[in-house]
Q: What sequence folds into this?
């Protein structure tokens, strides 16, 4: 089993090192090869996604990804910015199905910005379409406005588009996932305004005929944003497009009070996947040894489960993380009175010990 390790920028290298430590401790036949990505790759090779890094990711069974981005690259031309690396990997590997669980850990309930009773036991799964929508739609660019009240003025434009097969496949992923959970899918759209999302709604409704055992409801994205802070536990699986999924998944992650705990998986049709923490590169705390490695360690567990078909190893990691929390160990982001605050490497070591 071959894993491409792409640590990236900011806290990426520190947190990925801990996940690698945990993977090695499992003593599975895993071949791991590291390559630069994001700003680190721009520094080393002049491009955020060098050909060699892309080739390594394509050959691997799975990619373990840290994070990319740093304010210092904000002035680079767009094609050279670190974010292009993750967008390029998603597109080139066809990683259309993005799983973003938002789970509120019992010990961390108090860390949420919502009242504990609203989030205690929260367990929702956002399934975000990841290779279409306004993120990738062509045409896009800048030009002189061809018409309208500001004809001739400089304008910029992007294109929101989804095709029937793209919607069908992500809808199937969502219904299948719901069958493993509480059999409820909420499809989030903006069909009241956008053609793209009227098609989305129509196609999701059609696909639902194959899944009569799963409950489906439709919600406009503005209402979904509101319901997520009002009564988040009403959701089970949320399926939505790339742009809305980007926004709603950050909102949902924050509800749990522990964005430093949340893993994610992005899969293609062959089951090949990219696994990364839901949080970003946090350049403000990079290199200090204080970042929380648990989201990355839990992403490694998802990788074992989904791409490498090693469910027992995945269970072992997840149980070890629970044990470490129960022992009262916390990184600074999830610290609370009475707990022991540890650094990044200490947390990784504790998970290795807890593997048993
Ligand atoms: C995410 C991030 C990315 C996105 C950025 C870094 C391009 O916000 O994975 O949610 O917008 O998809
Ligand atoms: Mg985002």
A:
């Amino acid at each position: 089993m071959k894993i491409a390790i792409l640590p990236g920028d900011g806290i990426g290298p520190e947190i990925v090192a801990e996940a690698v430590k945990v993977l090695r401790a499992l003593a599975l036949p895993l071949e791991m090869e590291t390559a630069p990505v994001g700003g680190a790759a721009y520094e080393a090779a002049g491009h955020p996604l060098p050909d060699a890094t892309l080739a390594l990711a394509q050959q691997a069974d799975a990619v373990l990804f840290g994070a990319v981005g740093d304010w210092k690259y904000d002035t680079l031309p767009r094609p050279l910015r670190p974010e292009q690396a993750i967008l390029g990997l998603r597109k080139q590997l066809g990683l259309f199905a993005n799983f973003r669980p938002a789970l509120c850990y019992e010990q961390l309930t108090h860390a949420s910005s919502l009242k504990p009773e609203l989030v205690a036991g929260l367990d929702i799964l956002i399934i975000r379409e990841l290779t279409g929508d306004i993120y990738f739609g062509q045409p896009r660019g800048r030009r002189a406005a061809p018409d309208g009240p500001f004809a001739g003025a400089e304008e910029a434009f992007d294109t929101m588009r989804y095709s029937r097969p793209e919607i069908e496949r992500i809808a199937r992923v969502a219904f299948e996932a719901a069958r493993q959970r509480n059999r409820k899918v909420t499809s989030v759209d903006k069909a009241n305004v956008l053609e793209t999302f009227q098609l989305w709604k129509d196609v999701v409704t059609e696909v639902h005929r194959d899944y009569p055992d799963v409950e489906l409801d439709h919600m406009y994205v503005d209402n979904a944003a509101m319901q997520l802070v009002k009564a988040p536990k009403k959701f089970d699986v949320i399926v939505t497009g790339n742009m809305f999924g980007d926004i709603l998944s950050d909102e949902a992650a924050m509800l749990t009070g522990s964005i430093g705990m949340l893993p994610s998986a992005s899969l293609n049709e062959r089951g090949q996947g990219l696994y990364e923490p839901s949080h970003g590169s946090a350049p403000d705390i990079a290199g200090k040894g204080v970042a929380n490695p648990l989201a990355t360690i839990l992403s490694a567990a998802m990788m074992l489960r989904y791409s490498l078909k090693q469910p027992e190893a995945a269970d072992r990691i997840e149980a070890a993380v629970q044990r470490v929390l129960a022992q009262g160990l916390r990184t600074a982001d999830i610290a609370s009175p009475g707990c022991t605050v540890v650094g990044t490497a200490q947390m990784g070591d504790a998970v290795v010990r807890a593997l048993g």
In short: The chain has a mean pLDDT of 96. The chain is about 40% helix and 20% strand.
